[in-house]
Amino acid sequence: MENRNKQSRFTAPGWYSDACFARANATSESTITRRDHIVCPDCGKSYQVEARSLGPDGRRVRCPSCQSIWFESPTNSAPDGNGANPVLSPHFPRKLKRHLNGLPDKVKQNSTKSTHAIKTFLMREGLGDRAVGYANGIKVDLQRFKNVEFMWDAVAKVESPSHPGEDYDLTFVAESENQVHIDKILEDANKLPIVRADVRLMFFRANDSEQREYFFERLRGLFERHRKTELGDVYIMAGMETATWSYAVRKLTIRRELSNVSPWEEF
């Protein structure tokens, strides 16, 4: 990456006129907390930002390199030390939805860029303090890493207390961002219950809202009937409809068959 020490400004008229960024590897120190690796989802340039400049709810920002505008969430809170998985927070699905719908349309329209934007977000927002190894192309330092075939899909890992010599996925991801065929989406989703995980995420796209609703229900049926499904299993699903380039996010908690409580939470 060129010009790593160059100071840059992100600007979005009426939104983010004074937020000052430095490139990700800038060496200057500051007493103000900075957030590493803010990444433009379009051109991929990385920046640092003063955490307070994003405000408590996040803001739209503009990349000084390619001029793309997107929504940037505020800095994630520090690990609480009790091993909590941030993806299980009741606020996470809404934050995810806001991030996805805040992406530039040209990023949503490109499956490679949208996949990268999703995984960049998860690596930043989905790592609990128990995580000792990471995936998504980042080195895993567990001594006995078993799930090599799932290297791209696991967001964070810990040593498994119940299966010595293996690892445990805190968050596991499957995505079908490159097509809208239900058979392929179900094939990708079918591997989710195979791993032990606090929460499992599924990303897919559909042609319109009616087809997206159908896909949600087919995925629900798959997870409820899967032979490795257990009560209390949690799935967070994000479906985009290409008619409007908008995402809907739902959370599915597997409950007892005769329960009157809906397994869906919609955000």
User: Segments where pLDDT lies below 50 for 5+ residues?
Assistant: 1-32, 147-152
The helix fraction, in percent, is 10-25%
Number of strands: 13
End-to-end gap:
37 Å
Helix/strand structural class: alpha+beta
What's the total helix number? 5
Beta-strand share of residues: 25-35%
Radius of gyration: 19 Å
Number of domains: 2
Write down the secondary-structure element order. EEEEEEHHHEEEHEHEEE
Strand order of the largest sheet: 7-8-9-10-11-12-13
Q: Per the principal axes of the C-alpha atoms, what is the gross shape?
A: globular
- Major sheet: 7 strands, mixed
Q: Kindly state the mean pLDDT as a whole number?
A: 76
Describe, in plain words, how this protein is organized in 3D.
The protein is α+β, with helices and mostly antiparallel strands. The protein has two domains: 1-75, no CATH class; 83-266, no CATH class. The protein is 20% helix and 27% strand. The chain is built from five helices and 13 strands. It has helices at 92-101, 105-108, 111-125, 182-189, 209-225, and strands at 7-9, 20-23, 34-39, 46-50, 59-62, 69-72, 133-134, 154-159, 167-176, 197-206, 234-241, 246-253, 264-266. The strands form three sheets. It has a seven-stranded mixed beta sheet with strand order 7-8-9-10-11-12-13. A four-stranded antiparallel beta sheet has the order 1-2-4-3, with no helix packed on it. A two-stranded antiparallel ribbon has the order 5-6. The longest helix is centred in the C-terminal third of the chain and has 17 residues, at 209-225. Mean pLDDT is 76; it is low at 1-32 and 147-152.
